[in-house]
């Protein structure tokens, strides 16, 4: 009997320990959370005190937020970017463009020199008449200008008719009112031709009789 009682006591003690262990754990977790919360509050209070001290020292503080940024930081960033752009522009593109333009200019100059040599050779061999002197060219230009002015005086420019907008008609298509007019005119012409043919038949029958 004594052994049974001892065993029962041991079992009860084990059961009590098993029941109390989660309660103890919860209690410990709650204590840790409270301590962390207190530490955070203390840290926030210290930060607020430091900010108040800075505001008292600096009457015009600069509100620097993450979205807007301080003006000093923005100016510094702008200077850094501009210096980087000045130091490292897109040199390869500009160099390639300059090289391409220089190559084109050299090719055009070579072609011009070849054409000038061909013209000189043709003039020397009398295949082409030499260029007229400059005074004659000026006189020809003046005469052409006078002729144009006289033509404009005698024959004034014709009035410009109103153009049909492109949204109403395109190449090969008339607007709807003009299409209707053309159709009606074609129908009238066909009717007139039929009437004339009938009249001709009547006249020919009368003459034959």
UniProtKB/TrEMBL annotation:
Q: Which residues form a coiled coil?
A: 91-125
Gene Ontology CC annotations of this record: ribosome
User: Which parts of the sequence are annotated with region: Disordered?
Assistant: 126-152
Q: Which UniProt keywords apply?
A: Coiled coil, Ribonucleoprotein, Ribosomal protein
Please note every region of biased composition (Low complexity). 136-152
The molecule here is called Ribosomal protein L15, putative
């Amino acid at each position: 009997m004594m052994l049974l009682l001892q065993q029962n006591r041991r079992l009860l003690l084990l059961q009590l320990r098993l029941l109390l262990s989660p309660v103890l754990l919860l209690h410990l977790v709650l204590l840790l959370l409270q301590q962390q919360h207190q530490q955070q509050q203390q840290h926030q209070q210290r930060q607020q005190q430091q900010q108040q001290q800075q505001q008292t020292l600096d009457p015009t503080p600069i509100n620097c937020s993450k979205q807007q940024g301080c003006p000093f930081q923005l100016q510094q960033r702008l200077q850094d970017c501009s210096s980087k752009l000045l130091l490292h522009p897109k040199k390869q593109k500009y160099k390639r463009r300059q090289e391409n333009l220089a190559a084109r200019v050299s090719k055009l100059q070579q072609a011009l020199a070849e054409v000038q040599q061909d013209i000189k050779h043709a003039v020397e061999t009398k295949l082409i008449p030499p260029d007229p002197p400059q005074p004659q060219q000026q006189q020809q230009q003046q005469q052409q200008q006078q002729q144009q002015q006289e033509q404009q005086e005698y024959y004034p420019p014709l009035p410009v008719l109103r153009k049909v907008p492109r949204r109403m008609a395109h190449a090969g298509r008339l607007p709807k009112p003009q299409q209707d007019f053309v159709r009606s005119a074609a129908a009238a012409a066909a009717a007139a031709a039929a009437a004339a043919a009938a009249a001709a038949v009547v006249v020919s029958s009368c003459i034959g009789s």
